[in-house]
Each structure stands twice: as C-alpha cells, then as structure tokens.
Amino acid sequence: MLSIALVDTLFLRLLGIAIASFASGLGEITYLQYSTRYVPQVTTYCVGWFASGTGAAGLVGASAWWIVRPLGVRLGLSLLAFLSFGTAISFFCVLPEPKKMPVSVPSEDESTEALMSLPDQESDHTRLVALSFSDKMKLLKPMLLPYILPLVLVYFAEYTINQGVAPTLLFTVPDPKQHRVLATLIHTLRDYYPLYQLVYQAFVFFSRSYTSVLPLPPIPQSWLWTPAVLQLGLLVLLSTESLFDWFKESIARSMVIVLIAVEGLAGGSSYVSVMSHIGGSDRSSVGPSGDSALSVQEYEFKIGSVGVGDSLGIVLASLVSIPLQVSLCQAQVARGRDLCTRT
Q1: Which end of the chain, N or C, is more open, meaning fewer C-beta atoms within 10 Å of its C-beta?
Q2: Angstrom distance (rounded) from CA 107 to CA 65
Q3: How confident is the model at residue 57 (pLDDT cuts 50, 70, 90)?
C-alpha cells in the first residue's frame, strides 16, 4: 500500500498492487489450511469466524476509504497501510500453535473453550504425511461440481459486476428534495462507485457472518448452485440497465443499490457455506479416521483447492471487466448519456 501511495511510477504502483493481491491470497489459503489442523468442531468455528472476518475487513476497508479519501490517495493509503500489521499480530499472538491439539473431540458448544485452552501435547496431526498426485486428483474430482464450479461462477459474476458494470451505473447527482438520504451521500458522480462498494461490502459481511454470529447452518450442498445462478442473473440485469437505462428514473438509484446488496449477500453466503462444508461440516461426519494425520492432510488440500475457485473466478472477471466497462460506456455515449466520461 505504501508503494501505491508514495511512488509516482506506474510500474511500481502496479507491482505494489500485485504484491498486495499475492499476499492476500496466500494469507487466506494459509489460514484456511492451518485451521484443518484442529478437530472438526474447532475447524468449523475457525472457518466461520474467518469468513466473517474477511467480510468485516472489506466493510472496514470500504468504510475507512470513504472516511480518508478527502485526504487524498497519498495520505489516505499511507494511514490505512498500518492496518496490515493486525494480521501478523493475530497470527503470532492470538492463534494457538498447531501442535497444541486437544486429545478428545469437543462438543460443538465447547468449541470456543477447546480453541482457547488447548493442552500442550503432540498428536497424530503433527506427523507429516505426503499426498501423491493421484491422491490429490481423487480428492479434487468430487469437489469440482458441488463446490469449486459454483464458487468460480459466483465470483466471476460478482467481480464482473464490481469492476466492469458498477462503474458505469451512474445517474445525475440526486436532488435533496426528491432523494433526501442519497443526497447526503452523493455530491458528485465520483461518489456513486464508493457508495456501491460500501453497500456491497456491508452485505458481504452480513452474509459471511451468519454461520458464526447467529449461528445458522450453511447452505445445503444441493443448493450451492443457487447463489451462482442468482449472481449471473444480477450480472445480466445490471448490464442491461447500464446499456438501456430501463429502470424508472425515480427509483433507479435505489434499485441499483438494492441489487448490489443482494449481490453481496449471494457472494458471501456462497463463500462461507462452501468453506464450512469442506473445512468443518463434512469433516465432522467422517468416522474415527477423521482424526488421523492423513485425514488432516486431505482436508488441508481440499480446503486449499476450493480456495482456488474464487481466485479463478476473480481472474476471469478481471479479463472480462476492462473491455466490458469500455463497451458499456461507449454504448451509453452512443445513446446520448455521457456520465461515464465525466468521472
């Protein structure tokens, strides 16, 4: 973040963005795989709260940028860069070491206590067991259809909306007499996109937290394609609004914000449900061998592989979003709407 904020060279800024993305993805997979070293109930607890934390990070980040953006990119990003130290503090000072595992499997109600008071004993989890390539392929194939492909589609549609469509969903600055609330938030055309992202991140946080805060069970495996279908529908709906401006003018702004909120709910619930199934719920149904070192390695690989699904969806979305945004803006200009050229 500091390289982006303090350096004027385009190459170094892009390099900083790449390093930040690499560190974020590596940290996510590392923690998720790390969580499989605990017993199933504790893993479920960890995965649920990790998902909630990632949602909170997006919400806090979007809110923080909304607050500091009047300071400018240089000073604003420099201040926010210090938040990154929270990851190191939580990992090295809060999270128990993997070798300190409970001897017996705690009940679901005892997950928190088991996590906070792990006895200092070695267990089978710490023994190194290597999975062969064929073993990994056998584990990967059953996950493609129920888990990985839905995540790929969810994140492809979600980030295509965020990066390619949302920047073109612009309207005139709202009149305080007609839109009292929106008029307090939107003062220029540049305020629309940060507001969309704030709403999106807020509802991602809500949906990623429902298995840990409420707590409620994850979406059943047979229904995991539902968020993917919903996200694709939202992508089509918002793209057509960008192209044809067919929402009624009096409710268009509010309608777009509501749809972006639904987008956040669908994406967050899909993520936390898949991770809960792989990291905890499905693992809890395994027999006595579920505590073996081999089982730990299997679930470590499985949860890491599923994590690649959202990354692949985001990469595909980034390839589509740039030409899509340009095309949507050009189509708007051709129809006499030039708001996208003023931001």
Answers
A1: C
A2: 41
A3: confident
